[in-house]
Amino acid sequence: MTTFETAQTTTSGAPRPAGPRFAVGTRRPMDADEIAATGLRDRWYPILPSRMVEPGAMVKVTRLGVDWLLFRDARGAVHMLEDRCPHRSAPLSVGQHLGDRVACLYHGVQVDGTGTVVSVPGMPGCALEGKRATASLSVVEAADTIFAFVPLTHDSVPTPFVLPDRLADEEVSWFPNYAEWAGPWRFYMDNVLDPMHGAFLHRNSHSMFGGDTSARFRIRETDRGFFFEKTDQRGVNFDWVEFVRGSMDYVDLEIPYAPNAGPGGVFGIVGMCTPIDRDHSAIFHWRTRRVSGWEREAWRFLYRTRLEERHWEVLEQDRAVLEALAADADVEEHLYQHDLGVSRIRRIYRADAKQQAAVLAGVPA
């Protein structure tokens, strides 16, 4: 048991809540509002593109309001530790990379990728050695991205890691895209669950200039989430979006492409958002197309030389609007039928935040 827990153990060995507990990486209780603001736990999240953590490098990131250190060991495996030395809480990120461990600059304490203290040079053999005293997250690299399971409590068990369908399909070619926005993560989710904004905000884009500026929508439930879709238009614009709750939360959508956009099927987008803190978000997209053989190479060449810049322009339109919103923009609104998807995602996340806050407070289920 680490110093971050206040759980007792039953005679069966299972942890039992004993009053309030702290979320991993925090030093004080969190209520539902703070969880909703900084991000839900017990989920896999994309953290950084793999290319941004080079061999021998140590990279500090903030995710879900907590500072973390990413580093690759001598075998190339990525590790993710809370950016605090267990001795005096100095940031490990300003220390030294020692291959399979990092050494704190302050007093030389060495911590390996599991969060275990392997050496205390100032006092060899002290009780700190051998203890897993630093929070360490489960990490997977896939789709050119580093993913981590962010637990609610120290006894949370990571769920199996499963990529979104498009990214796991070998017949689908994809390009990753990463950006950081100065806006709450919930604004991103509201935006992607609002297909109608494509007919206005993106009206002059290369792929969403068609279709009506009025529509009717419906929610269609699935066994893994729901679709929010237009009932009177299909295959023209940003006509539908699927919200998926798997090992990670993501959105999936398609935008029809004209023949001059090159070979392949429809243009698909997988989108995810990882909270940095309550006011900043890490945005991950994979632009996809089902295409094979020589057409695959033709499509990838066309994307890099012509289409990628246009896609960035569309993304920048979203960023500019969402960063301009007031911090409480979603407090006083007059929603209408087009906003059913927005209302649904907010209810889902509000319920999740309350449930996780109850776990931390030690309230029985």
From TrEMBL:
It holds the Pfam family VanA_C. Its EC number is 1.14.13.82. The keyword Membrane does not apply. Residues 1-27 are annotated as: Disordered. Residues 1-13 have a biased composition (Polar residues). Residues 44-148 form the Rieske domain. GO terms for molecular function: 2 iron, 2 sulfur cluster binding; metal ion binding; vanillate monooxygenase activity. This is Rieske 2Fe-2S domain-containing protein. It comes from Rhodococcus aetherivorans.
